[in-house]
Amino acid sequence: MPALSVKNSLAPLTSVAPTSLMVEHRSPQALSPHPTNPRTHKPRQIKLLAKSIQAFGFVVPALVDANDQVIAEHARLEAVIRLGIEQVPVISSPANDRLRH
Length: 101
Hints:
Layout (H helix, E strand, L loop, with lengths): L22 E4 L5 E2 L9 H14 L5 E3 L4 E4 L1 H10 L4 E5 L9
Helix pairs in contact: 1-2
């Protein structure tokens, strides 16, 4: 079988701007969904996420901007609200303000 050839048009990563990231804990009710979040989730998906969170915890922090607006993890936050979890890990960074849907 011939080898698969893939061309990478991206320039190599030579440096990364330093970013200060800190995991904090916030009430999921204090976080607001981003108004342009394009993803929707069926109730069954939220229920499955809730089961996973019950089994394994909320492992990966949600990303939020400086105004506590959710950038990533909307569905998992909806699941923890349904579970009544009072605090979730979030990463809030000024750099997150540049991340938009």
